[in-house]
């Protein structure tokens, strides 16, 4: 082992041809620093990838799900640390801070703007993907989940122990737990149980000094901040301890689709009034999409996708009372276990085995630009028609409208850093996607402008002053800094949209735990500015 490690370091130190001579000195020092700050029982040499490694580029791109990012940046990390042990993450922080490298933290790679794997200053990626243990304890109905585990793995491991427990989290099953939870984490259980962070009871966080802190040692202010404020402004999340939630042995899912010619506009108008007020056990997402009606004419098809924590008979009674206009039929409904419903929501074909939840890497990556909105008032019929028209003028657009109400209204907007609570009817994701065959940078510019045009179109109906946005749907259009700058005024601009009135408190927490602003990115939270005379 000693001989192989020595050979590894000789090859690494001879391989750095992609940095300048001045940077090379720092980089070599960084590499030599790493083993002195990590557990020797788990050699960090096994976790380091440099540009000389044959697998460097494939690992770099494998967990970078938005291909658009590679069109707009030429930067590459000096190294990727694929942490195999918590001490590897600790060593990365200590050594990067000492030798002048920025650290970007990645788990699942679903970062819409690539902030977890790009920077315009010398940087290394700390890839948490291999730190993926999940320890489910049914006696306490809790689980410790490491940052690199995926939502699909969490659902699967819970189901191994119980068919009457679940966890409120995202519908995409390859989301990395580390980042997904820290921005909020929502899914079809949000109206019943709130967000992922509303069910987090402890955490392990590496601070800027390389210390591993738990809830007690980090303090309640930091624990508050990392639940909804994004951990990458404050440290590196190692693991979350979550409280499992109760689900019935059988749940019901359904999808009902209507086109404009079948009255979709009136149904969508009614959905806005009904969906946030339904019983907590029932969640109905509205998803409009442009289609060709078969006569070379475009129209919009609106999907109503539902999840009910109960059986079909009870669901039919509720729908016939609360939303009879939809015309839900028993034949539209499927009964299944809760874990099977996570496969349904991830849009796998009916009957797909739950083993698919263990697939950890997103296969169908695309070029995309996404934006988000919160709506506090019903979009009038004319506004819906404006939306339909906009959709029919954009290819490969998807829109998801997610209802609030229920538990989301019961939790104070200051209980965690996630402030989008009471007063919202629904939250919307807009996304434009395209493929490599559509072209390169020129195509990207065109599609990005289409997403911005749709966003501008919906401005009269969305929240305002500020126009709120969801942190997990990163959008640099709403304000940003340079890679190595965190101007407070710029941060206030995007901070108000992501965190509303919680931004200043988050900046205060940042001042306490990371006053030197080591953990930063283009949309990070800065320390409070130093006032004159202090």
UniProtKB/TrEMBL annotation:
<dbReference type="InterPro" id="IPR016169">
    <property type="entry name" value="FAD-bd_PCMH_sub2"/>
</dbReference>
<keyword id="KW-0964">Secreted</keyword>
<dbReference type="InterPro" id="IPR016166">
    <property type="entry name" value="FAD-bd_PCMH"/>
</dbReference>
<comment type="similarity">
    <text>Belongs to the oxygen-dependent FAD-linked oxidoreductase family.</text>
</comment>
<dbReference type="InterPro" id="IPR016167">
    <property type="entry name" value="FAD-bd_PCMH_sub1"/>
</dbReference>
<dbReference type="InterPro" id="IPR012951">
    <property type="entry name" value="BBE"/>
</dbReference>
<dbReference type="InterPro" id="IPR006094">
    <property type="entry name" value="Oxid_FAD_bind_N"/>
</dbReference>
<feature type="signal peptide">
    <location>
        <begin position="1"/>
        <end position="21"/>
    </location>
</feature>
<dbReference type="Pfam" id="PF08031">
    <property type="entry name" value="BBE"/>
</dbReference>
<dbReference type="GO" id="GO:0071949">
    <property type="term" value="F:FAD binding"/>
</dbReference>
<keyword id="KW-0285">Flavoprotein</keyword>
<keyword id="KW-0325">Glycoprotein</keyword>
<dbReference type="InterPro" id="IPR036318">
    <property type="entry name" value="FAD-bd_PCMH-like_sf"/>
</dbReference>
<feature type="domain" description="FAD-binding PCMH-type">
    <location>
        <begin position="73"/>
        <end position="247"/>
    </location>
</feature>
<keyword id="KW-0274">FAD</keyword>
<keyword id="KW-0560">Oxidoreductase</keyword>
<protein>
    <submittedName>
        <fullName>FAD-binding and BBE domain-containing protein</fullName>
    </submittedName>
</protein>
<dbReference type="GO" id="GO:0016491">
    <property type="term" value="F:oxidoreductase activity"/>
</dbReference>
<keyword id="KW-0732">Signal</keyword>
<keyword id="KW-0134">Cell wall</keyword>
<keyword id="KW-1015">Disulfide bond</keyword>
<keyword id="KW-0547">Nucleotide-binding</keyword>
<dbReference type="Pfam" id="PF01565">
    <property type="entry name" value="FAD_binding_4"/>
</dbReference>
């Amino acid at each position: 082992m000693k001989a192989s490690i020595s050979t590894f370091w000789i090859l690494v130190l001879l391989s750095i041809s992609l940095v300048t001579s001045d940077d090379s000195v720092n980089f070599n020092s960084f590499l030599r620093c790493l083993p002195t700050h990590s557990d020797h029982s788990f050699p960090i040499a096994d976790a380091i990838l440099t540009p000389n490694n044959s697998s460097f580029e494939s690992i770099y791109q494998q967990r970078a799900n938005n291909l658009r990012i590679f069109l707009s940046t030429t930067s590459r990390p000096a190294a990727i640390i694929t942490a195999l042990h918590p001490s590897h993450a600790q060593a990365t922080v200590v050594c990067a801070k000492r030798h002048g490298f920025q650290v970007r933290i990645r788990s699942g790679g679903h970062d819409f703007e690539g902030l977890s794997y790009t920077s315009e200053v010398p940087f290394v990626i700390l890839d948490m993907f291999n730190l993926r243990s999940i320890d489910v304890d049914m006696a306490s109905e809790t689980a410790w989940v490491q940052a690199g585990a995926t939502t699909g793995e969490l659902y699967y491991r819970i189901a191994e122990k119980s068919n009457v427990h679940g966890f409120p989290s995202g519908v995409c099953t390859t989301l990395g737990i580390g980042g997904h939870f820290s921005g909020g984490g929502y899914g079809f259980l949000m109206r019943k149980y709130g967000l992922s962070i509303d069910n987090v009871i402890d955490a392990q966080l590496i601070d800027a000094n390389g210390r591993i802190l738990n809830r007690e040692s980090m303090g309640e202010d930091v624990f508050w901040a990392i639940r909804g404020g994004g951990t990458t402004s404050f440290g590196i999340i190692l693991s979350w301890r979550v409280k499992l939630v109760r689900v019935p042995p059988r749940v019901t899912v359904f999808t009902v689709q209507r086109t404009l010619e079948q009255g979709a506009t009136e149904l969508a108008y009614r959905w806005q009034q009904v969906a946030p007020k339904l019983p907590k056990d029932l969640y109905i997402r509205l998803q409009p999409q442009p289609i060709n009606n078969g006569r070379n004419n475009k129209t919009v098809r609106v999907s109503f996708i539902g999840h009910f924590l109960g059986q079909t008979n009870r669901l039919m009674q509720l729908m016939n009372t609360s939303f009879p206009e939809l015309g839900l039929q028993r034949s539209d409904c499927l009964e299944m276990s809760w874990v099977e419903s996570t496969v349904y929501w991830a849009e796998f074909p009916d009957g797909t085995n739950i083993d698919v939840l263990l697939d950890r890497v997103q296969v169908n990556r695309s070029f995309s630009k996404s934006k988000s909105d919160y709506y506090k008032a019903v979009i009038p019929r004319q506004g819906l028609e404006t939306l339909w028209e906009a959709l029919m003028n954009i290819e490969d657009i998807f829109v998801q409208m997610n209802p609030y109400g229920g538990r989301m209204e019961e939790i104070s907007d200051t209980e965690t850093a996630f402030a989008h609570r009471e007063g919202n009817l629904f939250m919307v994701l807009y996304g434009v996607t395209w493929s490599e065959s559509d072209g390169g940078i020129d195509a990207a510019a065109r599609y990005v402008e289409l997403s911005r045009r749709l966003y501008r179109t919906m401005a009269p109906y969305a929240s305002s002053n500020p126009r709120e946005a969801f942190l997990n749907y990163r959008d640099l259009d709403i304000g940003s800094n340079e890679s190595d700058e965190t101007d407070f005024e710029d941060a206030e601009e995007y901070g108000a949209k992501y965190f509303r009135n919680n931004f200043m408190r988050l900046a205060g927490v940042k001042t306490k735990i990371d006053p030197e602003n080591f953990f930063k990115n283009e949309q990070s939270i800065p320390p409070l500015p130093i006032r004159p005379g202090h």
